[in-house]
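Entry: Heme chaperone HemW
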Amino acid sequence: MAGPLPVGDPAPADGRLPADLPIDASRPFSAYLHVPFCRVRCGYCDFNTYTSGELRGARQDEYADTLGGEIALARHVLGEAGALRPMDTVFFGGGTPTLLPPGDLARMLDAAVSAFGIVDGAEVTVEANPDTVTPDVARTLADAGVTRLSVGMQSAVPHVLAALDRTHHPDNVRTAVDAAKYAGLAVSVDLIYGAPGESLADWEASLDAAIALDSDHVSAYALIIEDGTKLARQIRRGEVPAPDDDLQADMYELADARLAGAGFDWYEVSNWARSVEQRSRHNLAYWRGSDWWGFGPGAHSHVAGLRWWNVKHPAAYAQRLAASESPAAGTERPDRESRLLERVLLETRLSDGMAIADLPEANRTRVAGLIADGLVDAAVALQGRIRLTLKGRLLADAVVRELTD
């Protein structure tokens, strides 16, 4: 299970938004629907997920209806605040959303569409474990209005999957992708690099396999060791080695080169797409600070600068809603300095970059030093924006510190 929730102010029991919240109803609005169920817990994962033995009073077969209760609450809260808008994007994340019957996912989507409406051409994504996607599942999702499947490939190499505690068979990635494409869904595949025992050759094999799938989008994330995970304990006991920063940098450079050679363009440090249209519009909404409501246990929300997060356990979540109470556990309104740090952190990761004029005046002069160090693209900076070079992407955190300290 994930670590502790943030420390914030108490959330109102009725979920009401503050009267002085500067709501702009013209801003895009997204919905995240969290499905907190997994068959097994991967050794590296610290997401808010639960196996069947950890549910303690919560039931998967009731989850779609339970989440529907929060959707009804959100419609009431946003309507009262004058912030009710149709959804531009919807994302089912987890956990493993496709552990639920596809009909349950369809009902959850229908409840959200009925409550808020949805714009024409909206992006609707479902994350999926390769072992759970069949032609029937893909077709049911497409018929329900899903437009995109994000497949958790992680690796094509069996010993790397074993190191990550991934249980799917590598061959099932192709089966899942083909089923999704045949149903008319766009497809993204997720990869992780830097697992214990993974060589550069292993990573190259996974990249080649991902490219051969002819997907529309690839995400490639460096393995991060999170406190409290099985993998963190294994490393602490000396059973497996910690990720090697230099090897992970080599892996990132290889990914960028191989994906670019296959027709993918990077648009965020860890994400590549075949075209602008295939970029993840939902994730871009996060990176650009749009408004979204996160439904489900442990889910986070953001509206007009206000943030809140739900109780973590599915049983506590269901109990709150059954009592006609908001499942929110806490809330916060970050100050100006915190908002600036977050904006620089997120926007500089995008290929579109960040406007230099949006930095505090005293910090703008630091861009010249970043250009001299080869971290920021000089030509783009002359046009008034900060865009990371390949070296800058590898040292993105250092760039953020320089721009915000």
